[in-house]
Amino acid sequence: MTVASVIDAARAALTPAERRVADVVLTAPEAIAFGTVADLAQRAATSGATVVRLAAKLGYDGFTSMQGAIQDELGQRLRPAAERIHEVLTSDVLGRVRAVELDNVAGTLEAASPGAFEEVVAALADETHRVHVLAGDASRGVGMLFADELSMLRAGVAIWFGADVRMARNLADVARGDVLVAIDHRRYERWVIETTRLARERGARIVALCDSALSPLADLAWCTFVVRAESAGPFDSHVGTVALINALMAGAAARRQRPSADRLDGIETAWRQYGALFDE
Fold it and tell me: What backbone torsions phi and psi does residue 257 show, to the nearest 5 degrees?
């Protein structure tokens, strides 16, 4: 298991201080791999004893053992980057972005649990339950892409956004067994977390697409996918998230190939009748 998977499995048993340490481990592994107990404690605004307790709670033989696991993972991830650095100049923005985004896609898809992936694909393909998509402001475009593509494969898909009155109306439509896909990165928006919590109380199965196993969305989730969102620029990247969405769509389409094919044929016919597209 990866360090992130170990943390995710133990998340419910962590104290607030231990969660802060775990969050630093997940978000700044390079610093932890070559730092000390004191460095990690300072970054997490806690004590060295808390760092040691977390390592033991995660099943490691102390901080050094946890650090070694992080170093092993980084070694696998950084080797290709260490080779690419000889080709990518500091001023080569395109090259820098290419390197970062390739890592985002690979890291996101490799971190996805095959079992959780298959469960979510089955839920998305099941037309007996509705699928609701909720995204924070920065992720709204990704949420709309998810909802639009899934709605071409099946009926009963809705994208949520708007004022409190609209959110309340959306919540009223949630039935037990429905799926709510929640997408957000730090800093998490309060309304996204609160709406997700209320949807879960109504019986929705929450699928979280977020950038940390310690995200408040992960605490509410039936299934969590941690996406890598590193960026060569000032804003979080959504490329890893889009790659994961593409994989979920491919899985859902394969599960309901015949009905989805019929639905897409109907959409194509309607587009032609309406003269909506230029094919030349």
Answer: -60, -50
